[in-house]
């Protein structure tokens, strides 16, 4: 006799989790972190309190899950670029980064963290340690692989990863924190990625 949940129950559990994360994000943004209770999240997500507490026993655990989901959406299903062609690999990473930064919930998540940081610094720590750093490390590992392949020469991998991601986010994302209607078109964002790749190859390429 198996104790594994059926495919149906697994699907229902995923749907409820998605509803909880979406409801919590809306409430955190509209009401603030302090004024949002798990009971309110359960009501907004149309799930029982027992269902919510089973998955997220604390509000901090719920916020951590929102951060993780926002930074890793779809990343587990994509093919990582192979070392050997930094132009192609960096372009692929750059375009995925644009898609991530322009996803519907990413700007909202940062606004929650910025608004609540004076009272709840742990939210910023969660955003940094569970969201940004794992993504940053994946880019760093790619650059490290290209160094091993001899296609680029980088003395400071952390700096190089910061430079590449910064060239993209400083145009695509950060202006949205002050200008809510900032929405560069696809061609502009493509050009930003292409220029970031060109500068990385010019600065670190060996060929």
From TrEMBL:
Pfam families linked: TetR_C_7, TetR_N
Portion annotated as DNA-binding: 37-56
InterPro entries per the UniProt record, alphabetical: Homeodomain-like_sf (IPR009057), HTH-type_TetR-like_transc_reg (IPR050109), HTH_TetR (IPR001647), Tet_transcr_reg_TetR-rel_C_sf (IPR036271), TetR_C_Proteobacteria (IPR039536)
Gene Ontology biological process terms from the UniProt entry: negative regulation of DNA-templated transcription
Any one GO molecular function term: transcription cis-regulatory region binding
Key words, A-Z: DNA-binding, Transcription, Transcription regulation
PROSITE patterns, alphabetized: HTH_TETR_2
Top-level taxon of origin: Bacteria
Domain HTH tetR-type positions: 14-74
Protein name, as recorded: TetR family transcriptional regulator
